[in-house]
Amino acid sequence: MATRQEVADAAGCTPEFISNCVNRNVLLTPLGETTAGVARDFSFDNALELAFIAALVVIGYSPIDAAIKAAEWRALEAEGELLAFWAENARTRQGVLMSKAPKDLAALAATFQDRSGRHYEPATALAIIHVREIVKRVEALFAD
After folding, report:
1. Distance in angstroms (rounded) separating the CA atoms of residues 88 and 111
2. Residue 81 CB burial class (10 angstroms; 0-12, 13-18, ≥19)
3. What is the pTM of this model?
C-alpha cells in the first residue's frame, strides 16, 4: 500500500490531483476502506490507474475520459500486452500504442489525419506518453 503523497510522486502529479480523483469518483479500481483521521492507502491498481489518468489529463483528456483509457491500458498491462508508448493526434484523439519511440515525427504526424475542408492533412499537434515508464515508476513504488 502507498500513501497519497507517494502515489503523487510516482505519478508526477500533486496530492490534490489524487484527492480530486478520489472525491469525484473518477477511479474505476476499488478503493480500500478508510477511517476518519487516518490517511487513505492506495493499492498498486489504484496507483497505476491514477498515474495513467494524470498523464492523460496533461495531454488534454478529462479525468473521466482518462479513466476509461486507463482501464484499457491496465487490462493490456495485466495481459502483458501493454506497449511502451502512446502517440495520438491531440486534436482528434486518434492514437496508437507503439513498442518503440517514433524516430520520424513527421511520418507519425502523417499517420494521424486532421480534416481540413474536404481533405485530410497530417496532424499538427501530437501527444506522446511513455506508458512503460509510468508502469516502471509505480512498480518501483510497490517493490519493497
Report:
1. 10
2. exposed
3. 0.88
